[in-house]
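This entry is passed on directly below:
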Amino acid sequence: MQTTNLFLSVLEFAFLISLSLSPQSLPLSQPLAPIISKEAEATPTWFRRTTKKGIKIKSNQSRKERTRQIEAQTFLDMQKLSRIHEQRRRKKEARKQQETSSPPPVLQVKNNLKSALC
């Protein structure tokens, strides 16, 4: 009888502990933070390692190879930017050239009317 009561009290205690550890009892402010951090630790380092420019770094690359890769990507980015700036500058110059070479059509019509009336 005493062992049965002890067994039931142990079962009841285990049941209460399992209820306290259930996901529904977790506070909503921090529901899965420990689980997510453990998953982040479990991801391989080669998957997480990227530079500021988003260049993926392989773990078996030497430091020189990484530096060359980053410099090459930076150089290509700078070339692309310089091309974009050059195109914008050319468009702006062409627009200015067109405005100075011939007046807008509305002004031409006004000038033609003035000369016809005089």
